[in-house]
Amino acid sequence: MQNYPIGTPGKPWGEEEKEEWKQRQTIKRSYNDEVLKQLGSIPEGFELKQYGALPYDESRYPLYAIVPKDMPKNIPKDMPTNIDAAKPAVLVTGGVHGYETSGVQGALQFINTKLSDYAEDFTIIVVPCVSPWGYETINRWDQYALDPNRSFYPNSPAPESAQLMAFVESLNLPFTLHIDLHETTDTDNSEFRPALAARDATTHDNWNIPDGFYLVANTPNPQKQFQEAIIDAVKQITHIAPADESGKIIGADLLSEGVICYDKKALYLCGGMTGAAYVTTTEVYPDSANATAENCNAAQVAVITAALKYIK
Questions:
Q1: CATH hierarchy code of domain 19-184+212-311
Q2: Cα 290 from Cα 14, distance rounded (Å)
Q3: Most buried in the list 155, 227, 232, 246, measured by CB within 10 Å?
């Protein structure tokens, strides 16, 4: 059992321990300055749509998506949209884990530099920061000590997940592609896995943090060639994570170079909520000696553009 400063070993956290954990968290950066202000200039043909706000502080944590201006409004769920069926619908999500910086900043960079290039061929929805409180406090969890990326299921208690699912459902779009932008950091071993073990009174052995970029495909429908096309594009930006001495990455078997699989729907992951034919989750490694903020963000953008080119 790993030591953690909150709770009693062998006993799952109750509300008192969760409250103690929340009180230990502090604001370390500004969602307003680093995210919202970056959304001040939206590419032509798109608009900023508020789809919710976190109940912790609704004025501080509004939730936004970038959507095409020609998106139909208030469509009944049993009626088709008037969007051109020949244009695949694409969802890009970032910051489901708020502490994973390049997921957010990579999504913003895509909006500001590449989104317009693909507007004619795709209906693209971008949600750059799903978990703004997590972004500010550099946390994997939300204020309720819940992991939003394990909370995409009906009646989810995680407001980040519940509000995103409601928004996506309201769009009534048959998504072809969903890209969820993430990072794997050294703090997974130093903080988040020990916290998880303490919260649930379980044991989580530390894993070898992969030194490099990798993808997580969807086990029921991995789309191997699609994942490989993305890996080839990212190789131009940064290095791909090798397998460990057991031939695995974070305990999972490789589908191909730099690609592992999780059953996204069964694990209640963000990547499992749309049923899209093409789904991938990025994992950038910002703590590598070869990493910079610039190439981490660029790798995220490269994933999106490579995926769009593949399905075009």
A1: 3.40.630.10
A2: 41
A3: 227
